[in-house]
């Protein structure tokens, strides 16, 4: 039995996660079992038909391993395994009370969007040092950033975020060379291979953010920049905004520019959208995980969750004992 010690496991079905001779293992049809060390695991991502036995489920719960199920191509998270911890009730109470205020939602949105624009500018300067023309991007981002602190509503902040993203994507298109091409961001469905990779990376990023929030006792569905919408992890969506460029966009540019992924590794679905072929999926997963580690994205994500904790604490009513995290 092959044995691996990794913090994140990507399991592509059909297959089953089960116990074999007292050890956690993934058995894929036609392949030998892969033994996983639960003491090293923090995240398990399952794609397609991946079942979990009761004994394996119990082990994942005991080791607090975040486990999520995705569609076969990784485009959408179907659901996740999450434990409960009564000690974090106070954290969620605090979050709900703070984000009940339109002013606090606006202030959180300002913080997130300012952070996102900063990462765009940082990335642009890096490309500039490599002799890539940034055109008016840095000037445009600077002008938008100056308006963020004065935005009077969350809607106004969202408008500035949209303007910054539009400027960034215009610049991003110029970073790709034939046979790659990117003209505009399209999500449902992705209109080209670059958009397919961006969507895949954002899905992985969203899963990491949701796992981090749940581990900290937060309610992923309730955010500030992204309004509440049934079925959407709005706080997770907030949290990934400052990580989109360093954790996903730069990975896509690098993978395409270095020919680590090729356009002919994508197929067109009936919807007209592009998706990565199954045989190339493992390569994309490996490249993204490698890029994630090299970028120090885990640390950045933890820093933003810590910033969230500080934000909520500073805006809580110190006289309200019901907000104690010891509830």
Q: Please identify the structural class as seen in this structure.
A: alpha/beta
The helix/strand order is EEEEEEEHEEHHHHHHHEEHH
**So, CATH architecture of the largest domain?**
Up-down Bundle
Taking pLDDT < 50 over at least 5 consecutive residues as the criterion, the unreliable ranges are 322-327
Task: Tell me the β content.
Answer: 5-15%
The name of the CATH topology of the largest domain is: Four Helix Bundle (Hemerythrin (Met), subunit A)
Q: What is the number of domains?
A: 2
- End-to-end distance: 45 Å
User: Which percent range fits the helix content?
Assistant: 40-55%
Features:
single chain; 327 residues; alpha/beta; Ribosomal Protein L15, Chain: K, domain 2; Four Helix Bundle (Hemerythrin (Met), subunit A); 2 domains; five-stranded mixed β-sheet; four-stranded mixed β-sheet; 11 strands; globular
Describe the structure.
The protein is of the alpha/beta class. It has two domains: 2-83, CRISPR-associated endonuclease Cas1, N-terminal domain (Ribosomal Protein L15, Chain: K, domain 2); 87-323, CRISPR-associated endonuclease Cas1, C-terminal domain (Four Helix Bundle (Hemerythrin (Met), subunit A)), CATH 1.20.120.920. It contains ten helices and eleven strands. The protein has helices at residues 54-62, 89-99, 102-129, 137-147, 154-173, 193-215, 234-240, 244-257, 278-294, 297-314, and strands at residues 2-4, 8-12, 15-20, 23-28, 34-36, 43-47, 50-52, 66-70, 77-81, 266-268, 274-276. The strands form three sheets. Strands 1-5-4-3-7 form a five-stranded mixed β-sheet. The protein has a four-stranded mixed β-sheet with strand order 2-6-8-9, covered by helices on one side. Helix 3 (102-129) packs parallel to helix 8 and helix 6 packs antiparallel against helix 8 (244-257). The longest helix is centred in the middle third of the chain and has 28 residues, at 102-129. The radius of gyration is 21 Å and the shape is globular. The N and C termini lie far apart (45 Å). The model is unreliable at 322-327 (pLDDT under 50). GO terms for molecular function: DNA binding; endonuclease activity; hydrolase activity; metal ion binding.
């Amino acid at each position: 039995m092959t044995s691996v010690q990794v913090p994140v496991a990507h399991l592509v079905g059909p297959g089953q996660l089960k116990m074999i001779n007292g050890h956690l293992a993934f058995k894929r049809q036609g392949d030998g079992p892969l033994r996983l060390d639960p003491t090293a695991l923090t995240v398990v991502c399952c794609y397609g038909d991946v079942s979990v036995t009761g004994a394996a489920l119990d082990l994942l719960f005991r080791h607090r391993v975040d486990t999520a199920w995705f569609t076969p191509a990784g485009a959408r998270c179907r659901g996740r395994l999450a434990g409960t911890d009564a000690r974090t009730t106070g954290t969620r109470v605090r979050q709900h009370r703070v984000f009940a205020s339109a002013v606090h939602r606006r202030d959180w949105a300002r913080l997130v969007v300012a952070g996102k624009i900063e990462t765009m500018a940082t990335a642009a300067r890096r490309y500039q040092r490599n002799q890539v023309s940034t055109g008016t991007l840095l000037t445009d981002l600077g002008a938008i950033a100056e308006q963020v602190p004065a935005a009077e509503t969350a809607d106004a902040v969202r408008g500035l975020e949209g303007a910054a993203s539009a400027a960034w994507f215009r610049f991003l298109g110029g970073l790709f060379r034939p046979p790659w091409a990117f003209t505009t961001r399209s999500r449902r469905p992705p209109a080209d291979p670059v958009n397919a990779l961006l969507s895949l990376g954002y899905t992985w990023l969203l899963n990491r953010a949701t796992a981090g929030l749940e581990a900290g006792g937060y309610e992923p569905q309730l955010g500030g920049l992204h309004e509440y919408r049934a079925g959407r992890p709005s706080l997770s969506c907030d949290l990934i905004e400052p990580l989109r460029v360093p954790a996903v966009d730069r990975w896509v540019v690098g993978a395409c520019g270095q020919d680590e992924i090729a356009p002919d590794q994508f197929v067109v679905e009936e919807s007209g959208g592009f998706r990565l072929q199954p045989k190339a999926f493992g390569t994309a997963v490996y490249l993204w995980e490698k890029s994630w580690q090299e970028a120090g994205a885990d640390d950045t994500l933890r820093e933003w969750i810590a910033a969230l904790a500080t934000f909520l604490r500073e805006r809580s009513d110190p006289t309200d004992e019901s907000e104690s995290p010891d509830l």
